[in-house]
């Protein structure tokens, strides 16, 4: 609903009678008779979104607490209201991956992505919260139940939308009000995985809140996440073993099983989320079974009993190892993570990420890249080189030239192609159109010690701070600063600091050009001084555009 930032009008305070009426409506809809607003002052405003219009209610600090569609009857609490009143709504649980990669990208919650058993209140047309199984009391999305969820004891393979998502943390509504509040830390225990022989526990009865426990098997995770099957995880670990035996120069035999896994297999996995790809998610479950399997098929020799195993020999003459094509490992990714850092201490640095679209998705499936949402340019470049090598596309007469197969040809030439369109191109020319035609650019900013500035990467190229010095009507010189909010600079704080720094009056407004963003104007020509101030805030000069529109004074002729 708020996938894009809605247009928000000016706020106005609700009358006391209207505030009481709104509170009563909230209580009746949720059934929470003891609920009360967390603020004595409630404001309201209208919003206009891409697909709907309505009303937003905020607290005295302009934090949205409830909203309502123009022609709808339901009132929806925001995630901020649910953090202060965790018992307000029935909660549907799901996995972290589903929330981060699906819901936070505007998708609805599918039935196969939920975790039964369900709260008895989760019936069609009921407003509910969505939370992660690892933190079941912190609601991260709000929606409307579409199915009679309590009737489902198992969701594996079940079709349909469980919850239509109306609002989620960090969506357009949060961005419109420029809210910078992280989820509250509640004393919640993660939902524990049950042993198979114990079965599933029933929903604990409680008049206010239910605690959920469920058995999560490997097949459940693979089906609900629609990303990795057990075979996929096995494949990753097998590839890590092959990589260790062929390209890991730090491997010394003999080595005990624990050190072999922690120092070689895990670092040599592809750069995937290791909460989803770990030994427990494989078909072997345990290190000992994993190693004994590869001893049985002739890759290594073991000594020891039970789980106390030592690798004493490796067979590097297996056909699988002879034809093995290396890939970028998670260890390499971690070691190169800081390659984009600014050389100056305390400066922010950025990382470009790319999301596959159209033929980009087909390429990911054909390559050795792990399935994930975003990739670095290094990962894509390495993958293209591996693809070219594996498909034997290098021109035998000129190693710098590549013969495009059908997939690369369509990815390289997005526009109309003819029979005269060349299939043999320079390797150096491949990457730019490959990325531009088949991937969407995102960026993430980092502060000191690799701390990301945003919870999720932002779509589009990194914006640049714009500083313009000009003369206005009346020969008044001013300096305007805009596009600074991306770097977590507050307009009021910036105006106050520039007022002191430049010893001039400041005003806060909006840019004239679209899209309209906050703009701080200070009296006088202070471009270099403001650039120095921004540098001290961690913004490097290379991210700042400065333009002076003042005309140089002409020297008078003697």
From TrEMBL:
Residues 352-437 form the DM2 domain. It comes from the Eukaryota. It holds the Pfam family SWIB_eIF2D. Residues 187-209 are annotated as: Disordered. Residues 465-538 form the SUI1 domain. One of its GO terms (biological process) is formation of translation preinitiation complex. GO terms for molecular function: RNA binding; translation initiation factor activity. Residues 199-209 have a biased composition (Basic and acidic residues). CDD domains: eIF2D_C. Belongs to the eIF2D family. This is SUI1 domain-containing protein.
């Amino acid at each position: 609903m708020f996938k894009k930032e809605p247009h928000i009008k000016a706020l106005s305070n609700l009358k006391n009678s209207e505030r009481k009426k709104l509170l009563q409506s909230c209580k009746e809809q949720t059934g929470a008779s003891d609920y009360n607003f967390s603020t004595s002052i409630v404001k309201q405003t209208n919003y206009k979104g891409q697909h709907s219009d309505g009303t937003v209610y905020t607290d005295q600090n302009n934090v949205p607490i409830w909203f309502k569609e123009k022609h709808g009857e339901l009132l929806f609490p925001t995630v901020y209201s649910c953090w202060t009143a965790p018992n307000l709504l029935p909660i549907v649980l799901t996995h972290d991956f589903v929330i981060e990669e699906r819901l936070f990208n505007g998708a609805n919650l599918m039935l196969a992505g939920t975790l039964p058993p369900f709260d008895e209140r989760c019936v069609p047309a009921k407003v509910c919260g969505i939370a992660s199984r690892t933190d079941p009391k912190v609601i991260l999305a709000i929606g409307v139940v579409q199915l009679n969820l309590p009737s489902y004891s198992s969701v594996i393979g079940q079709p349909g939308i469980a919850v239509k998502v109306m609002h989620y943390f960090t969506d357009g509504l949060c961005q419109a009000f420029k809210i910078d509040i992280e989820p509250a830390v509640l004393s919640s225990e993660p939902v524990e995985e049950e042993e198979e022989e114990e079965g599933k526990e029933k929903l604990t009865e409680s008049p206010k809140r239910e605690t959920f426990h469920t058995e999560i098997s490997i097949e459940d995770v693979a089906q609900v996440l629609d990303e990795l099957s057990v075979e996929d995880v096995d494949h990753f670990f097998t590839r890590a073993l092959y990589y260790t035996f062929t390209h890991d120069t730090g491997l010394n035999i003999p080595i005990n099983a624990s050190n072999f896994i922690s120092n070689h297999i895990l670092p040599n996995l592809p750069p995937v989320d290791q909460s989803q790809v770990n030994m427990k998610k494989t078909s072997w479950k345990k290190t000992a079974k994993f190693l004994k399997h590869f001893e049985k098929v002739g890759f290594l020799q073991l000594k020891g009993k039970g789980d106390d195993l030592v690798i004493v020999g490796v067979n590097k003459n297996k056909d699988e190892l002879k034809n093995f094509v290396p890939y970028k490992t998670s260890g390499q990714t971690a070691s190169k993570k800081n390659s984009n850092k600014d050389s100056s201490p305390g400066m922010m640095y950025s990382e470009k990420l790319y999301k596959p679209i159209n033929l980009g998705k087909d390429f990911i499936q054909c390559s050795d890249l792990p399935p994930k949402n975003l990739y670095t340019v290094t990962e894509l470049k390495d993958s293209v080189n591996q693809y070219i090598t594996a498909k034997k596309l290098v021109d035998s007469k000129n190693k710098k030239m590549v013969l495009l197969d059908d997939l690369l040809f369509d990815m390289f030439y997005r526009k109309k192609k003819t029979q005269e369109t060349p299939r043999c191109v320079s390797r150096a020319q491949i990457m730019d159109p490959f990325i531009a035609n088949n991937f969407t650019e995102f960026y993430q900013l980092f502060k000191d010690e690799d701390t990301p500035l945003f919870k999720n990467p932002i779509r589009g190229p990194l914006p640049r701070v714009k500083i313009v010095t000009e003369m206005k009507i009346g020969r008044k010189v001013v300096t305007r600063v805009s596009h600074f909010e991306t770097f977590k600079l507050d307009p009021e704080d910036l105006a106050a600091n520039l007022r002191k720094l430049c010893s001039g009056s400041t005003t806060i407004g909006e840019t004239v050009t679209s899209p309209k963003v906050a703009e701080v104007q200070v009296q006088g020509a202070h471009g270099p001084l403001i650039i120095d101030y921004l540098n001290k805030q961690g913004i490097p000069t290379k991210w700042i555009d400065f333009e002076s529109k003042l005309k140089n004074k002409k020297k008078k002729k003697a």
